[in-house]
Amino acid sequence: MAIPSVMILPMLIVVFAGVYYVYNEVMRFMSKSMVRNKVVVITDAASGMGSECARLFHEGGARLVLCGPSWDKLESLYDSLCSGSDPSTTFSPKLVLLDFSDMENISEVITEIEESYGCVDVLICNSSMKVKAPVQNLSLDMDKTIMDVNYFGPVTLAKGLLPLMITRRAGQFVLVNSIQGKLALPFRTSYAASKHAVQAFFDCLRAEVEEYGISVSTISHTFINAVTESTTPSKTQPTNPLWAYISSKLKTHGVSPSALAHEIVRTVNWHRREVLLAHPIPWVALYTRSLIPSFFFAVVAAGVKDGHMDEQLN
């Protein structure tokens, strides 16, 4: 009996939905199995994104080394991960105090990380310090602090763990970076500069360590939606129509900690070299910056004159 033509489209939708569901279930299972027993180091692990990332790797059976500047927050994360987990399929995380704004004891920290399990399979550099201010309001001391946290910290840690990976001829570095490592915007002079610098370092590192079987991945994302955005409209609106549209998109579109953490797991599993998590506006801005820089600069300058860019960008 022939199938009525009116039923073809609904049936196709059901079939594709079923295939998509099966695909997601298979990928989720493979993601967990691929990280099992791997030693994964996460910096700033007690942050929103870091804790979500730690949860996914912990559930997948990874051996975690959780780093952060606050011992209380690390212990709280430890308790939340271990409570209710199956000790036969998961490992109790190791905790290491690590504050990139204080680099004096970094060599001892590196030694402690190496001795936690004797090796490191994956280093996830998640730490980040943000500042938003006109350039004339930022002191050089603040510039240096931002560079310590966003650049010198991850770089020092990566260089400290690199010999261990070279000896084993295996390992992976994952840099969780901002899109401003590729696209500099006003009122982010120090922040954007630090993100550009660390992006360049890991890009160079990727080429240098490939012969040792070590992979380097960078994930560039827009701002993280840590909390639900307020739906209350701003009291004053940008007067420039083009910038009003762009700023509204920048304000309402970000990435959730959960989505970013899942992308990190996929990146670790498939050794993706570069990932960009962004909605269409930043993508267009990146291409415009490269292909039509004068137009890009004019739009950005219009946003600054409007006085609203510093409120809309993170």
Walk me through this protein's architecture.
This protein has 314 residues and is of the alpha/beta class. It contains eleven helices and seven strands. A seven-stranded parallel beta sheet has the order 3-2-1-4-5-6-7, with helices on both faces. Helix 2 links the parallel strand 1 and strand 2. Helix 2 packs across helix 8, helix 5 packs parallel to helix 6 and helix 7 crosses helix 10. The C terminus is likely disordered.
Which helices and strands appear, and what pairs or packs with what?
Layout: H1 8-35, E1 39-42, H2 48-59, E2 63-68, H3 71-82, E3 94-97, H4 106-117, E4 122-125, H5 140-168, E5 171-178, H6 189-209, E6 214-221, H7 241-252, H8 257-270, E7 274-277, H9 280-291, H10 293-306, H11 309-312
Parallel strand pairs: 1-2, 1-4, 2-3, 4-5, 5-6, 6-7
Oligomer: single chain
The string of secondary-structure elements, in order, is HEHEHEHEHEHEHHEHHH
Strand line-up in the sheet with most strands: 3-2-1-4-5-6-7
Low-confidence stretches: 228-235, 308-314
Question: Total number of β-strand segments?
Answer: 7
What's the helix count?
A: 11
Largest sheet: 7 strands, parallel
Q: Estimate the mean pLDDT confidence.
A: 84
Distance between the termini: 59 Å
Percent in helix: 40-55%
* Rg from alpha-carbon coordinates: 22 Å
Structural class: alpha/beta
> How much beta, percentage-wise?
5-15%
Global outline? globular
